[in-house]
Design brief:
- This protein is mainly alpha-helical.
- It folds into 2 domains: 240 residues, no CATH class; 119 residues, no CATH class.
- It has 15 helices and no strands.
- The radius of gyration is 21 Å and the shape is globular.
- The two termini are 26 Å apart.
């Protein structure tokens, strides 16, 4: 692929994906699974929304991250790339772990009846044990786990990606850019899903956005493959409507397996349906974006720069506001709108008037 050509639809998908993550975490306040803080009234409809978004929202981000990695490696050495990844990923992660995330852990402990006292009383206890293993210290940054995982993936895959850049597998692309053959990329996802499900308490844990880290690694690798040959893009675009139909069909089958037939999410059949469903959604988004969103404007320039700091801030803001409105006597949907609206305003005010304008904070939030 021509390294000089920038495809703006990838940037648009990052912005739209961030909007999806924001709406997803607002819904987590209301769904029936445990979270850092919960509304007094839980809602099955929100559980369905969360379950659907879980199928593709973080896989989409890893595909987009792989595509951004391709561009970064076109004009950086390996050392320059790792240095840039550390600045953009590790610095915000460390800043979040020590500055933003303690508030979330405090609210979780208070709202779950596990701590009494002020935030400043709690701070010394933040370093008591490891979060996820009975303690408080959020070593993965809670929702910032994505930054940690992406940095580790960048380290692990760098030698492979550099080799692929030097000798792009055109023969491989000859096969997989034929009509509908790119659909077969779902097979490695399904195989890994089956393998990790053999050990649900270790490598099969789904604490990270509903998927195993190994599954994300495969999706990340597949996203990079899609950038190695210019023929993938039109091939995915041509089948976008079929991809959408298959996405909806696979999603319906997955819901029926769980709700109507009580099939476990660790069942091998469900693993194949879920992998196929996820890959179809990814191809749907990539195909329609390629067709309709390959353009730039001032809105995209602004929002594209804001995506990372918005991501770093958003869940902490949602959790804090949720904590104060949890017991309000208000129906679920109006409260969801209130939570999402107020959270969005607070995040954007913090970004526009503080983070964006102070160079030290720009650095700490991974901005240039």
């Amino acid at each position: 692929m021509d390294a000089k050509k920038r495809y703006y639809d990838i940037d648009w998908l990052r912005v739209l994906g961030m909007a999806g993550i924001f709406l997803f975490h607002n819904a987590r306040f209301f769904n029936e699974e445990d979270w850092h803080v919960k509304n007094a009234q839980l809602d099955f409809g929100m559980s369905v929304v969360v379950a659907i978004l879980n199928q593709f929202i973080m896989p989409l981000f890893f595909v987009l991250s792989a595509m951004a990695t391709y561009y970064a490696l076109q004009h950086r050495t390996g050392k320059e790339f790792i240095r840039e990844r550390a600045s953009r990923l590790l610095i915000p992660l460390i800043f979040g772990i020590f500055v933003l995330i303690p508030l979330q852990v405090y609210i979780e402990r208070v709202s779950h009846g596990e701590f009494q006292g002020s935030f400043f009383d709690f701070l010394p206890h933040y370093f008591d044990g490891w979060y996820g293993f009975g303690g408080n210290f959020a070593w993965m940054g809670l929702h910032l786990w994505y930054l940690l995982m992406l940095f580790l993936f960048s380290l692990v895959t760098l030698p492979i990606f550099q080799r692929l850049n030097r000798s792009s597998p055109s023969g491989f692309a000859d096969i997989f850019t034929r009509p509908f053959v790119v659909y077969l990329f779902f097979i490695p996802i399904a195989i890994v899903e089956m393998l990790v499900n053999l050990s649900p308490e270790t490598i099969g844990r789904r604490d990270f956005g509903g998927w195993s880290p190994l599954t994300y690694l495969v999706i990340f690798f597949l996203g990079y493959l899609l950038m190695l040959d210019e023929r993938y893009r039109p091939a995915i675009e041509r089948v976008r409507f079929v991809s959408l139909i298959l996405s909806l069909l696979a999603l319906t089958i997955g819901i029926m397996l769980v709700l109507a037939f009580d099939v476990s999410t660790h069942n091998p059949l469900f693993s194949w349906v879920r992998a196929f469903n996820t890959w179809m959604w990814l191809l749907t988004f990539l195909g329609f974006a390629s067709r309709h969103l390959d353009f730039n404007n001032n809105f995209l320039k602004y929002t594209n720069e804001a995506v990372l700091p918005f991501y770093i801030l958003h869940q902490t803001v949602i959790v804090i506001i949720g904590f104060f409105i949890a017991n309000w006597t208000l129906a679920v949907f109006p409260k969801y709108l209130f939570l999402a609206t107020v959270s969005f305003i607070v995040i954007m005010v913090l970004y526009e008037f503080i983070v964006k304008r102070i160079n030290v904070l720009r650095f700490l939030f991974g901005m240039k």
